[in-house]
């Protein structure tokens, strides 16, 4: 009985320790997500002839970077990923980042699994506001198209860039536009709370008083600024 009581007390102490440490663990997870997203943008900027046209980023109202989106399939497929979204504020500067998730499915003869990095370029404020206020479905809530690649592609297709969102993916070092119709994007409120240390809405992050940025967030925003100017 004595041993059982000691075991119970030890388990209780471990539980309390885990409860106290869980925000830090969550914060570390969000920092890792930001660092990976920053690396994805940096690598894209280093291949200007095969990456997202800087002009497209320069005119964007929002940019979402979702590393390691996992797509699996056996007859019925699906995808899931966690990333970050940054929005252009009314004064032309970039906001603090908020965290997002993407999920979607497809039906067809498919088998296997793959992981890709996904980048979404939001061209309109309407699409950003739609995402802020609830679940946002690509292709339904706003038009989405596979984005043009490279500087020459930007010039050649400038007159045809009429979609509200342009989507890209990178797999095995290759980078190209990708169709993501039907995928749902949500604000990850749990991650936002963990990272900023308090409950906070996406509207406050994007449009409210400017937040002091932790180093990982500041570095991500800096990389966005660099990418939109072509590195």
Q: What percentage of residues falls in helices of 4 or more residues?
A: 40-55%
How many helix segments? 7
Count of distinct structural domains: 1
Distance between the termini: 67 Å
Rg over CA atoms, rounded to whole Å, is 20 Å
Number of strands: 7
Largest sheet: 7 strands, mixed
Mean pLDDT score: 77
Oligomeric state as shown: single chain
Overall morphology: globular
Run of helices and strands: HHEEHEEHEEEHHH
Defining key terms:
231 residues, alpha+beta, 7 helices, 7 strands
Structural summary, described in words:
Helices cover 40% and strands 31% of the residues. Strands 1, 2, 3, 4, 5, 6 and 7 form a 7-stranded mixed sheet that branches. The radius of gyration is 20 Å and the shape is globular. With 231 residues, it is an alpha+beta fold. It contains 7 helices and 7 strands. It has one domain. Helix 1 packs across helix 5 and helix 1 packs parallel to helix 7. Helix 4 links the parallel strand 4 and strand 5.
């Amino acid at each position: 009985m004595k041993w059982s009581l000691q075991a119970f007390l030890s388990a209780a102490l471990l539980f309390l320790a885990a409860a106290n440490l869980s925000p830090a663990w969550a914060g570390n997870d969000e920092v890792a997500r930001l660092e990976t997203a920053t690396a994805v943008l940096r690598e894209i900027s280093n291949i200007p002839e095969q990456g997202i046209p800087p002009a497209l980023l320069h005119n964007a109202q929002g940019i979402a970077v979702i590393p390691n989106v996992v797509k699996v399939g056996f007859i019925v497929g699906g995808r899931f990923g966690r990333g970050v979204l940054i929005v252009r504020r009314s004064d032309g500067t970039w906001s603090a980042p908020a965290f997002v998730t993407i999920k979607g499915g497809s039906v067809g003869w498919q088998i296997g699994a793959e992981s890709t990095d996904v980048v979404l370029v939001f061209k309109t404020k309407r699409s950003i506001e739609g995402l802020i206020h609830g679940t946002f479905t690509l292709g339904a809530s706003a038009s989405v198209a596979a984005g043009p690649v490279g500087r020459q592609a930007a010039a050649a297709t400038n007159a045809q860039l009429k979609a509200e969102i342009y989507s890209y993916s990178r797999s095995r070092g290759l980078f190209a536009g990708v169709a993501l119709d039907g995928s749902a994007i949500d604000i990850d409120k749990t991650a936002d709370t963990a990272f900023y240390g308090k409950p906070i809405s996406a509207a406050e992050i994007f449009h409210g008083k400017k937040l002091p940025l932790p180093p990982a967030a500041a570095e991500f925003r800096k990389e966005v600024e660099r990418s939109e100017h072509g590195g």
